[in-house]
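Supplementary notes for students who missed Thursday's class. We covered one full example, reproduced here. Read the sequence, then the structure, then the short commentary at the end.
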Amino acid sequence: MNIEIKVITNAKKREILREGIGLKVRLMSLPVEGKANEELIRYLSEMFGVKKSEVKIIRGDKDKRKLISIPVDEAAIEKVAGKSTTD
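Structure (token representation):
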């Protein structure tokens, strides 16, 4: 499934929230040298229980708005949206 994601970097905690038809993901990393993208892929794979290699950035590699491909269904997104972890 392809999901539109708005990424907020330099947050105090990691969090996934529902935003319209997509998601808003707060990350603790800064968008420097791909660190935020790496954290995004790692965080989404942990939260959805899939391998990191299954999470792909289709569009928006250097943008706050991204299109992500991840092998989950709408029910999994609803289950995860709203949960957060603080690392």
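Commentary. DSSP finds two helices and six strands in the chain. The chain has one domain: 2-79. If anything here is unclear, bring it to office hours.
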